[in-house]
Request: fold
Amino acid sequence: MAKDNNIHMTQKTIIANYGTENVGKTTSVKLVYHKLHQLIADENCRDLHSPEDNNGDLCAIITINNKKVGISSLGDNIEQYAEWLDELVGEECDIILVACHDYDDTTKKIYSLQAKGYRILWTENARIYEEIDKNIHNAPKALLSRFNEQWAEEIANLIDNWCYA
Reply:
C-alpha cells in the first residue's frame, strides 16, 4: 500500500464502523483485518479471540511498524463487546477498529474510551439503499458487498498509512 506522509496519527484512535443492522459492518471489519494481515508476517498478528471459537467474530492485534492495531468484529450489543474492547485498550493499541450499532450500549462503550485518551472516528461502510413499495431497504447483497470491499480497502490503506506516519 502506498504511504501518504500527509496523514498523521498522533493520538490513539478508535475507528467505529457504525450503522443499522445487516449492512455488512462486521464483514467489512473482517475484510480490513485480512487486508492488513496480508501485509505483515504472521508473528506480527496475534488473535485474542479466534473466529472458530466465536461464531465467526474475531478480536486480534496486528503490529505494523511498531504500532498496535486492534480489530474487533463483534458488533452486537452483547457482554463480550465491552470485554473485547477493554482487552484492546489494555494492550495499549494505537488504533482500534470496531463494528458497532448506531445506538445502544456499543456506542456508549466507545464514547467511554474518550476518558482513556482515544479520539473517535465514526464511519459507515455501506450506505446504499433502494426503495421498494415506498419503503427503504438495503440494496442487493452484491452491491452492498462491492461497497463494503471498497470501504475496507480505504480503511486498510488509512490504517497502514498511519502506522508509518
Observations:
- The chain has a mean pLDDT of 88.
- The two ends are 13 Å apart (CA to CA).
- The longest helix spans residues 141-163.
- Strands lie at 13-19, 45-49, 59-64, 67-72, 95-101, 119-123, 129-132, 135-138.
